[in-house]
Amino acid sequence: MVRPNKQTEDNIVNSIIGEGSEFKGEFKINGLLRIDGKFQGTIETNGKVLIGQSGEAVTDIQAKLVVVGGSVRGNIFATERVVFLSTGVIKGNIITPSLIMEEGVAFEGNCTINKRP
User: Fold this and answer.
1) Which domain covers residue 107, as residue numbers?
2) Buried-most residue among 20, 43, 92, 105 (CB within 10 A)?
3) Has residue 7 been placed in a domain?
4) SS3 assignment, position 46
């Protein structure tokens, strides 16, 4: 039996909220969540959260890695890194050890860089 390597496992989408879909509630998952539709609630994962360019989220996110290409209104707590793509619109507070922000991002809020010991 062939087991996928760690890098491949990190890129497997466990759950997706597709474009045109809406979901409200509490999302607790292991692995990667991709949002291309509308989401309202809370997200908690030990993996990654990707907000696609068409994605809209009103949420508080707790994850290892968060990538935002769409719209997020809420707070983000990432244990590894947050990446804001140039198409991202973010209103909320960020706590993370590492932040990458492309030119063109709209960000309104506070950011705390918590470097690991």
Assistant:
1) 15-113
2) 43
3) no
4) coil
